[in-house]
Amino acid sequence: MTHSPTGWLAWLESSSLAHAMRQWLWLYPAVEIAHIAGIVLLVGAAAMFDLRLLGLSRGVPVAALARHLLPWARAGLGLMALTGTLMFTAHATEFGASPVFRIKLALIAAGCLNAAIFHRWPFRTVTGWDVATATPPAAKAAAVASLVLWTSTIACGRLLAYF
Ligand code: HEM
User: Fold this and answer.
1) Contact present, 133 and 63 (Cβ < 8 Å)
2) Residue nearest to atom 25 of ligand 1 (CA)
3) What is the pLDDT of residues 94-125, one digit of tens each?
4) Domain ranges of the chain
5) Are 49 and 65 in contact (CB under 8 A)?
6) Is the CB of residue 150 below 6 angstroms from any atom belonging to ligand 1?
């Protein structure tokens, strides 16, 4: 085994897991369906929270909504990391060389960073704007960034089949 990145990807692609992903008729589609279920959980939960931050449904308390949605978003991301890695393994050299795949990973990192900054900064003062009050501009900016980043991630995921 060589230690170059391409060698590592070729080794991954020749693993028995990668063979199974390519050869068992229903395995790749089943993993891909689970990946899409993960998108529904993560992006669905994030978008509902973002719309609340942008001023919709002001009667719904932000902190309670965050407590309800955050575990689902985390579960969705975990499911996507697992299923995405499985699909990556099947065609590791091809995905590894794809600029779209790199952009997608950068967008995922940016989406997670945006969520982490939101929780460490504007969300700390949530008791002051929890219900029936305008959300601070920093929270609105995080909501817009979240919507743009996760939508762009979905676009890159779909474009992987073409580029
Ligand atoms: C967490 C790490 C992730 C990895 C390693 C990963 C990897 C992959 C791979 C390898 C594919 C297969 C492409 C193909 O067969 O053509 C794929 C598909 C896709 N991914 Fe991800 N992904 C991840 C997370 C995400 C996230 C967070 C989103 C969206 C928010 C996302 C959206 C998509 C979409 C929309 C597709 C296309 C599904 C389809 O065409 O049926 N992925 N991903």
Assistant:
1) no
2) 80
3) 999 999 999 999 999 999 999 999 999 999 99
4) 5-159
5) yes
6) yes
